[in-house]
């Protein structure tokens, strides 16, 4: 079960964060405000799904028995990365998109780059977790 949840979570992050998000702004007729509005909805849904996957992974890691620390450490990094994104970075992104949607461009924020960097860490942790669970199951 942990393997399936991990790779579904990984697939969702890769598809949305690294495929949908950058491509939406290249679509004909998509303005910055429209793209931001779509992005907010999509990432709110993604983060809600990620929270569910994270809870399932945490419960499975707690009740499971794993050979070595790889599974709990990888799970901790993935869940920790998600928590940092939700608690520390998303509020800054929301404030920035609120300002842009209200017509106040202002200085660009580095929060988006921080979110992407954490997303890369989360992807690496999810790959590590999925592989570690597969190895531990054999």
UniProtKB/TrEMBL annotation:
Entry keywords, A to Z: Membrane, Transmembrane, Transmembrane helix
Membrane-spanning residues: 50-67, 73-93, 113-135
Superkingdom as given in the UniProt entry: Bacteria
Protein name (database record): DUF4149 domain-containing protein
Lineage of origin: Bacteria, Bacillati, Actinomycetota, Actinomycetes, Mycobacteriales
């Amino acid at each position: 079960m942990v393997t399936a949840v991990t790779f579904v979570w990984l697939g969702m992050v890769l598809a949305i964060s690294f495929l949908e998000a950058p491509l939406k702004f290249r679509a004909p007729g998509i303005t910055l405000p429209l793209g931001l509005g779509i992005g907010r909805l999509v990432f709110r849904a993604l983060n809600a799904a990620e929270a569910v996957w994270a809870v399932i992974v945490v419960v499975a890691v707690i009740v499971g028995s794993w050979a070595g620390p790889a599974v709990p450490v990888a799970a901790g990094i993935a869940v920790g990365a998600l928590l940092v994104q939700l608690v520390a970075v998303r509020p800054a992104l929301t404030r920035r998109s609120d300002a842009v949607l209200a017509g106040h461009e202002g200085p660009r924020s580095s929060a988006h780059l921080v979110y992407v960097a954490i997303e890369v860490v989360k992807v690496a942790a999810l790959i590590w977790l999925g592989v570690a669970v597969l190895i531990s199951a054999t």
